[in-house]
Amino acid sequence: MKQTLAFLLIATFVYACGSSDTPEETSGAQQATTATSQADGKKIYKQYCVTCHGLYGDMGASGAFNLTTSELPVADRIVVITKGRGAMTPFENLLDADEIAAVAEYTLELKK
Ligand code: HEC
After folding, report:
1. Closest by CA position to 84, among listed 98, 71, 65
2. pTM over 0.90, yes/no
3. Burial call 7-20: b when 16+ CB within 10 Å, e when fewer
4. How far apart are CA 14 and CA 70, in angstroms?
5. Cα–Cα dist 99/92, whole Å
6. Which residue's CA lies nearest to atom 12 of ligand 1?
7. For an engineered disulfide with 41, which of 19, 77, 86, 102 has Cβ 3.0 to 4.6 Å away?
8. Which stretch of DSSP H or E encloses residue 14?
């Protein structure tokens, strides 16, 4: 009888240890989701915007606006990036709304 009890205790202990792995896996998956849903404005800028605006925003290729002196509020930047303006290409088919907002925020950092 005592042996059965001991076995039950060990079984419970092993089960408890085994199940403690599960929350870790879940939080790992959650972290991965957060990483992909948070758009990286700097990365997007380097990928799509440097060709005209340059790494620091002041290159001005093909008449690109100098982003270090731009006073445009972030909401208007989102419109310019989404719809394009003049020689600037629209990005609505290349980036989703989150990514456009993130890169618009990033352009504010280029201001001196
Ligand atoms: C094909 C070259 C080109 C690319 C690529 C480009 N731009 Fe532009 N951008 C321009 C030009 C040209 C203007 C000025 C438009 C005008 O004359 O009305 C401009 C204007 C802007 C403005 C408005 C600034 C102001 O104060 O009016 C913002 C903000 C901007 N670009 C951000 C970006 C971002 C962010 C990206 C990358 C997602 C990007 N641009 C990619 C050429 C480009």
Report:
1. 65
2. no
3. eeeeeeeeeeeeee
4. 62
5. 10
6. 64
7. 102
8. helix 2-19
